[in-house]
Amino acid sequence: MKKIGYLSVAAALLWLLAFACSKRFTTDSTNTLARNVTPLDAAPPPATWKEHWFEHNQLLYLRFYDTSDAIYFDNDVDTTIHWPEAYMGQVWDYTKSIYGSFGSDTKLWAIFHAGKYSGGHPSTYFDTSHDLRNVIDVGSSDPEAWTAGTGNDIDLVTHEVGHIVEGASKCIHNSPAFAIWHDSKWMEIYQYDVYAGLGRSADVTRWYNLKVPTTDDFPRAGTHWFRDWFYPLYNGFGKTATLNKFFSLLAQYFPKHTVSNGVFSYPEYTRSMNMGEFVHFWSGAAGADLKQLALQAFGNLDESGNDWTVQLTQAKTDFPNIKYTDFTAQGTLSVNEENSGGASATEGSLKLIDNSYTTKFFHGGFVSPLEATLHFPSSHVLGSYTITSGNDAADRDPKNWQVLGSNNGSTWFVLDTRTNQSFPLRNQTIQYRISNTTAYTYYKLSVSATNGSPDFQASEWRLTEY
Fold this sequence. Notes:
With 466 residues, this protein is of the alpha+beta class. The protein folds into 3 domains: 9-171, no CATH class; 178-318, no CATH class; 328-464, Galactose-binding domain-like (Jelly Rolls, Sandwich), CATH 2.60.120.260. 27% of the residues lie in helices and 24% in strands. The protein is built from 11 helices and 20 strands. The chain has helices spanning 9-15, 83-99, 152-168, 178-181, 185-197, 201-211, 225-236, 240-253, 275-286, 291-298, 308-318, and strands spanning 26-27, 33-34, 48-50, 59-65, 69-73, 108-112, 116-123, 135-140, 256-260, 265-269, 332-335, 361-363, 370-381, 384-388, 398-406, 413-418, 429-433, 439-450, 456-458, 460-464. Helix 3 (152-168) packs across helix 5.
C-alpha cells in the first residue's frame, strides 16, 4: 500500500477555483463520452484510463469530473450510480481545507470496480505507478456494488482518502506512525472527523457506535484504540486542529531526506517512529501531556515488548521543540473544602492532581465556591488546563467555574470563566486554552456550580504552559 503526496502554492490557488469551475458529464451504455466542456477545461481528464498496477488491468471510463474530483468506473459498475460525484468532492475539499493541498492537481482521482478487486488502496502523485495522481481505487466482489452510497460504501472510500492524508501531508512522503496504528486506527478518527466536518450527524453517530466497542491485539490484546485513545484525544484536546497539528509537527521535526521518483525529487521520512515518540508528538499536537492517557489505553509496553515510557524520555531529549510542559506536579495543592477523609483519603483532594484519570476528588455538600489552589515555587505562564470528569454521577461534574492567577495569594486575576459546561462521558478530559501571557506563582480553580448535585467531584485538574 503506497501513500504519497506533495504541496504547492499553485495547488492552493487552483483550489480556490473549485466551485467556480465545476464540470459534469455522463457516458452512455457504450461508454461514449458526452462532455460539457468550457474554455476553462484546457486539459480535462482523459476519457479512459488503463490500469497498470498490482493485479489491476481494467480499462476505466470517466464518469464525472470537476476541479475537486475525477470519477472513473470500470465497465461492470452500474452507470446510474451518481453519489460519488458529490460525496468524493466533499470529502476531498474538506480534507484539503484541514491538511493542505496534495500537489498541484486539485483533483482526487476515484476509481470504482464491481465484481472484482474487493477492498481498496490509495496512492498519491509522488507514485509513478499510478501516474502521479492522488488516487483511491476501490472494488467489491459484488457485481451490484456501490448502489447504496451509504454505510460501508462511504466508509471504504473515506478510509482510502485517509491513507493519502497520513502518507502525504505537508508535502512529505511516508507515514512514520503506520507501524504503530497499522492500517485502520488513524482512519477511525479521521473518518469520524470527516463525517462531523461534513455535517453528516447520522454517520457520526453510526461510526461512533461502530468503533467504540472495537478492540485490537496491538500493542496489547484488547486495546480499544478509538474508545481509549483517539476519541478522548480528539474530543478533549482540540479536535480537528489537533489532528492536523500532529502532521505539522512531524513535517517540522521528524527526520527526513530527499528522494526521487525519476520525475522529480521530494522529501521523505527516513524511518518509523517508536511508541514513545508517538506519544510525544501527539502530546505536542494536543498541547498536553498524554502519557497517562496512553498508559491507560496501551499499557507501558509497545508491540515488541519494549517499555515505551523509556522511549518517551528519550524522545523529549531528541525532539525538544515539541512542547507541552505540564507543571501541575510542581505545585502544592490546598482546598477550601476537603473530603471527609482528608486530603490523602481515597477520594481526597490530592487525587485531583495525582495524574490518574481513574481516581477522583469528591466532596459531599459543597458550599459555593469550592476552591482548589496550586502554589508553585517559581512562576509559570498558564496556556491551557484540563479538567477530567469523575467516574459516575454526571450531575456532580463542575458546571460553572473560573481559573484565577496570583503572585501573592491574595490579589487574584481572572484568567478564564466557563459556564454551562458538561462532560458527556465519564473520566472524560476536556482541554481549555486561555489567552494569558503573565507568569503567576498561584493558580486557583473556583467552582461555583455543579450540574445539579449538591456534591462535587472531578478526576483531574492539570495545568500546562502551552
